[in-house]
């Protein structure tokens, strides 16, 4: 199976380094992506928006030229959903790591503090306590070292969706800073942030309690959860 891994904000392909070895050992072809504007700390980021990141994932799907599994962490969930909308017949499953699909017209996060055309990694006190569970000092220092400013447009551009075939693509939500029970409660309550999940025909929920970055705090368990979803 070909598995395309899409990182969240401030991260490049190397952020999956702790996750990919078990996937490769299981015989899968793994494609961790570095998205436009995240190539280096000094890469140009002006003019890069959500569409450019979705297009990069679509290009990776097309390059494989056979059905794939998409994995998106955090904001990567919105990006893989946009790519699934573009290529619904080429995605066997979408796996959302502490994330979910972003609906039509919604934005990923337009409240993060920006500097010009980019969003640097904010101070830790910007994040909720649930985000930071298990993120010890060593992991935080490594995160700061590797963090690359995020192109502003990716966070603030509205999602545009065109193909309801995306609803037929099975989804797995790996729940880290929230539980499956909490997620179902939000869906039942009509929370707009999770409304898109209610339209997907087949969704499963996997509990992996930790903070918002399980690829750093529980990489082996995250690999196992992805493998289990791929095998289904």
Describe what is shown at a glance:
The chain has helices spanning 20-25, 50-64, 75-86, 137-146, 152-156, 180-188, 214-217, 219-231; strands spanning 2-6, 29-32, 68-73, 91-97, 118-119, 150-151, 171-175, 203-207.
What descriptive keywords fit this protein?
232 residues; alpha/beta; Rossmann fold; 6-stranded parallel β-sheet; 8 helices; globular; AB_hydrolase_fold
Topology:
Elements: E1 2-6, H1 20-25, E2 29-32, H2 50-64, E3 68-73, H3 75-86, E4 91-97, E5 118-119, H4 137-146, E6 150-151, H5 152-156, E7 171-175, H6 180-188, E8 203-207, H7 214-217, H8 219-231
Parallel strand pairs: 1-2, 1-3, 3-4, 4-7, 7-8
Antiparallel strand pairs: 5-6
Protein name: Alpha/beta fold hydrolase
Organism: Arthrobacter flavus
InterPro entries: AB_hydrolase_1, AB_hydrolase_fold, Sec-Metab_Biosynth_Hydrolase
Task: Give a structural overview.
The chain is α/β, with parallel strands linked by helices and 232 residues long. It has a single domain, classed as Alpha/Beta hydrolase fold, catalytic domain (Rossmann fold, 3-Layer(aba) Sandwich). It is built from eight helices and eight strands. The strands form two sheets. It has a six-stranded parallel beta sheet with strand order 2-1-3-4-7-8, with helices on both faces. It has a two-stranded antiparallel sheet with strand order 5-6. Helix 2 (50-64) crosses helix 3. The longest helix is centred in the N-terminal third of the chain and has 15 residues, at 50-64. The radius of gyration is 16 Å and the shape is globular. The mean pLDDT is 97. InterPro entries: AB_hydrolase_1 (IPR000073), AB_hydrolase_fold (IPR029058), Sec-Metab_Biosynth_Hydrolase (IPR052897).
